[in-house]
Amino acid sequence: YTFECCYNSLTFLFFSFRRQDVLTVTPWLAPIVWEGTFNAEILDSAYRPLNLTVGVTAFAIGKYTRFVGRFLESAEKHFMKGYRVNYYIFTDNPETIPTVQLQPGRRLVIVPIKKYPSWQEISMRRMEAINKHIAETSHGEVDYLFCLDIDMVFYNAWGPETLGDIVAALHPGYFNVPRSQFPYERRSSSAAHIPDGEGDFYYGGAVFGGLVKKVYEFTKTCHMTILTDKANGIMAAWQEESHLNRHFLSHKPSKVLSPEYLWDDRKPKPPEIHLIRFSTVDKDYKEIRD
Amino acid sequence: ADVCTFGMLISKVDICAEEICVCLYEFYRSFKDYLHSHIPCRRRDVLVLTPWLAPIVWEGTFSRDILNAQYMQKKLVTGVVTFAVKKYVQFIEGFMSSANKYFLAGHQVIFYLFTDNPEQIPHIQMAPENRLFVIPVQNHSRWQDISMSRMDIISRYIRSQFQYEVHYLYSIDVDVQLFEHIGVEIIDALVGTISSWQYTARRESKSYETRTESQAAIPKGEGDFYYTASFYGGSVAEVYKLTRACFKGVMKDRENGIEARWHDESHLNKYLLYHKPTRLLSPEYYWDAELSRPRIIQVKRMCSVHKNKRRQVIRSIMWAMLSCHVFLPLDFTII
Prior knowledge:
Chain A: Pfam families: Glyco_transf_6 (PF03414). By secondary structure, chain A is α/β, with parallel strands linked by helices. Chain A has helices at about 10-15, 40-45, 70-80, 120-135, 210-230, 240-250, 285-290, and strands spanning about 30-35, 55-60, 85-90, 105-110, 145-150, 150-155, 165-170, 205-210, 255, 280.
């Protein structure tokens, strides 16, 4: 039989930018960013003239300060190259933060923070800390803000394709399993509860961001639901990640990043993942969480 | 239809090139159903995302329920601008009645109807959420001038009036009818509609202005899509910038004694090449009734009103006959 397709100069370009093996648009028309869906040059030429400053928050508490050096060095190589970047490293131990050579237009800001007794508490207090910091400082310094885990490394380009009003990332462990297996908080007594049969995706807590105003709003909401749970003596299954998933169910992200932007190196690479951009550092969880 | 007419018709029927879809064999390639299997909307036969990550809206890519829930939270008002000058007043009734039924049904819409003949406007039953403003406008002797002055009028009225009344604004040709819902999936900062002519073999008939003397000129080999001037829009701020830029281009061309090949549409295409739309509407959203519909167009939401009724009937019969093919429609020139 005959093929219906016809390539001409106008549309030939687009055949190099398409992915058919994965979902690239959500049902609410937010793009899902995979390698092969975007042209980095076009996006760069649209965003560069806007003179944006992108902020990054990362928490290095207790033994997690050992990850800062590698995080920053790899970010200098791959994160928003050519843009102004402010790294906000929240730490209880400012002296242990190494000095890393930064490109022009990029700076490191150390934000002293209190250390909480348990790692779960530390993790969940991030929302409050980020929210407070935006209100006090970063709202006037950055246009977009990404909140990333520190125990990760950049391996490939992370560019303006990630910028959007509200940005979430697909968790690497759950992007290719049925929804019934998503580890949402299932107890109805929790404010992070998502009933069976609901939910769009399972988003990872290690990567989220967006316009600084939007990040302010949703970190506040998440912190409120975390406090509600605390008052009721319950802690969600995956701490703030559960609350984030609950929030993004009713306030859908305007852009979703594929697991390329939040990978776990312990996992074998499936065919859908063409490029790993940001991934976990191998570590002994028991040792590091005290 | 007699054999002679039928033969003539076949040679004129447009061949569907369908550039923006993949080869059919890919359609049957195995697809991992467990990947987001709970998400009902998928289209793999068409491009659903541009290289600058703007979604392209096709039937099957979105859930209107989810989008409506988001839209409702924001309490937005949308405006529609349309022009009915000279004999185009005959289209008002059909346009307004179908738009009231299908355009952002259930949401607040303000229609701005520009006409040179306000007395000739028939009574229009408006949906309770909608409003109609009839605005008198001067006509021109040439339809091309009428067409190009739309840009100027829209930008001036945004500045003086629309920006205070609506959040989003869409310009739609009046000689159309809506047959299916056009909903909040169209709402975004800067929205262009892919021309239905993108799918015809005679691409040269609808393409960019190439003469470098014109402000609308696009260098050879460049261009993303061909957008139709019959349906575009976005936020009032973005539409203001677009219409101002296009009209500036029109005026500059006029000074230089040149007129762009497809008039305001050429200028629109130039603008959208260098200011990428944040959302694209597939040709479902404006289908030129002259053309036969390829398989990838599952829904025709808004169509131009065909002036020649007889041709329209014959085409529908032909399409119905040819749709019986299980495989692809054969190349019509072979027939």
